[in-house]
UniProtKB/TrEMBL annotation:
Keywords: ATP-binding, Cell membrane, Membrane, Nucleotide-binding, Transport
Domain ABC transporter residue range list: 7-254
Cellular localisation: Cell inner membrane
Pfam families in alphabetical order: ABC_tran, oligo_HPY
Membrane topology category: Peripheral membrane protein
Organism: Celerinatantimonas yamalensis
Protein's recorded name: ABC transporter ATP-binding protein
Family: Belongs to the ABC transporter superfamily.
InterPro entries: AAA+_ATPase, ABC_Ni/Peptide_Import, ABC_transporter-like_ATP-bd, ABC_transporter-like_CS, Oligopep_ABC_C, P-loop_NTPase
Listed GO MF terms: ATP binding
C-alpha cells in the first residue's frame, strides 16, 4: 500500500507578544492510502494547527519545521500555486469553522461548480448536477433549489453539510475532517460518518478525522493519535489503544467515554484538572500535574515516544520503567 501522507519531525511555533509558543512538537505519522487516522485530545492540544499547517493555512505568526510529504512531495516546501493544484482537489479539509471555506459573496452553486470545471474538466451542466448530487448525499433537502442560495442563508448545521459536500466534491485522495459533525444532530452525524466510511471503502479515500468523540474514531479509524499539550502521548492501532491503552491520559479519556465504559463495565471518570497552558508547560511530562501514576522522573524529564511490545508508541515514564510500573500497580 502506498504511503499518502508522511509527517516527520514536525513542529509548529507561534511568535506572540509573550514570547514563543511551541504549539506542536516533533510529530511523526505515516498514513497509507485508504487508511484513516483519528486525532484526539483536549482543547488546545495542537490538533487543528497541525493540519492547517499542512494545508498551507498557518496564521502569519506561525512557523512550522520538519516535513509533511503528500505522495512523497513535501507540502511545507510547496509554493501557493503548487498547493492550489492539490488543495480542494486531491487533499481537502472540512474546517472546524464552516465560514473558513465558504465565500459569503458567492452562491453555493458557483463555489461548488468552479472547482469541478477548473480541475476536473466538467462542463457547467454536469458540474451542477454533480454538486446537487453531493448536497443530496450529505442530507440537504431540496438541493436543486438550495444550491443557488448564499452560504449565510443556510443554518449552522446546513452550512456544515455544504462544507462537507464541497470537500468531497472532487473525491479527494486525502480528506482532513476537523470536528466535522459536532454542529450536527445525531441522525445527520451518523449519516455523514456512514458516507465517509463508504467513500473510504469505495474510493480508497484516506481520512484524518480530528474529534473529541472517541466513538467516531472507533467506528471509522485504523490508527489513533492522542495529543496532549502539543505532543503525541500515544499513537498506534485503534483496537490496541482502545482495548489496551497505555498512557494514563488515554486511559482517562477512555474511562470518561460513556458508551465504552458501559461496554467494559467500568465507572465513568473525569480527568482531574485542566488542559495545560502552552506558554507555561510544566517541566518534564506535561500531564504530570493531573496524573495519578506520576513518578519522580515525570517532573524532571520529558518522556520520549517509544514503542511497547504491541507496537503502540507511548510517551510515558511509567510505561517504560518496568520495575517502577510493577511497584506501583
Ligand atoms: N495564531 C496563533 N498565535 C498563537 N497561538 C496560537 C495561534 N493559533 C493557535 N494557537 C495556539 O496553538 C494551540 C493549538 O491550537 P489548536 O487550534 O491546534 O488546538 P485544538 O487541539 O484544535 O483545540 P480545539 O479542540 O479547541 O479545536 C492552542 O494553544 C492555541 O492557543
Ligand atoms: S510520564 Fe509520568 S506524569 Fe506523564 S503520563 Fe506517564 S506517569 Fe503520568
Ligand atoms: Mg481544533
Amino acid at each position: 500500500m502506498d504511503t499518502i501522507l508522511e509527517i516527520k519531525n514536525f513542529s509548529i511555533e507561534f511568535e506572540t507578544p509573550e514570547g514563543q509558543v511551541l504549539a506542536v512538537s516533533n510529530m511523526n505519522v505515516a498514513l497509507k492510502k485508504g487508511q484513516s487516522l483519528g486525532v484526539v485530545g483536549e482543547s488546545g492540544s495542537g490538533k487543528t494547527q497541525t493540519f492547517l499547517a499542512l494545508m498551507g493555512l498557518l496564521a502569519k505568526n506561525g512557523r512550522c519545521s520538519g516535513q509533511a510529504s503528500f505522495y512523497g512531495h513535501d507540502l511545507l516546501q510547496m509554493s501557493v500555486e503548487q498547493l492550489n493544484q492539490i488543495r480542494g482537489v486531491k487533499m481537502s479539509m472540512i474546517f472546524q469553522d464552516p465560514m473558513t471555506s465558504l465565500n459569503p459573496y458567492l452562491r453555493v452553486s458557483r463555489q461548488m461548480t468552479e472547482v469541478l470545471i477548473e480541475h476536473k474538466n466538467y462542463n457547467k451542466k454536469d458540474a451542477l448536477e454533480k454538486a446537487i448530487h453531493m448536497l443530496d448525499l450529505v442530507g440537504i433537502p431540496d438541493p436543486s433549489r438550495r444550491i443557488h442560495m448564499y452560504s449565510h442563508e443556510f443554518s449552522g448545521g446546513m452550512r456544515q453539510r455544504v462544507m462537507i459536500a464541497m470537500a468531497l466534491l472532487c473525491e479527494p485522495d486525502l480528506l482532513i475532517a476537523d470536528e466535522p459533525t459536532t454542529a450536527l444532530d445525531v441522525t445527520i452525524q451518523a449519516q455523514i460518518l456512514e458516507l465517509l466510511d463508504e467513500l473510504k471503502q469505495k474510493l480508497g479515500m484516506s481520512i484524518v478525522i480530528i474529534t473529541h468523540d472517541l466513538g467516531v474514531v472507533a467506528g471509522l479509524c485504523d490508527q489513533v493519535m492522542v495529543m496532549y499539550g502539543g505532543r503525541v502521548a500515544e499513537h498506534g492501532d485503534v483496537q490496541q489503544i482502545f482495548y489496551h491503552p497505555q498512557h494514563p491520559y488515554t486511559q482517562g479519556l477512555l474511562q470518561s467515554m460513556p458508551s465504552l465504559v458501559s461496554e467494559l463495565d467500568q465507572a465513568l471518570y473525569s480527568i482531574p484538572g485542566h488542559p495545560p497552558n502552552l506558554q507555561s508547560l510544566p517541566a518534564g511530562c506535561a500531564f504530570n500535574p493531573r496524573c495519578a501514576k506520576c513518578i519522580d522522573a515525570c517532573s524532571q524529564t520529558q518522556p520520549e515516544l517509544l514503542a511497547v511490545a504491541s507496537g503502540t508508541m507511548v510517551a510515558c515514564h511509567h510505561v517504560h520503567t518496568p520495575h517502577v510500573a510493577e511497584n506501583l500497580s
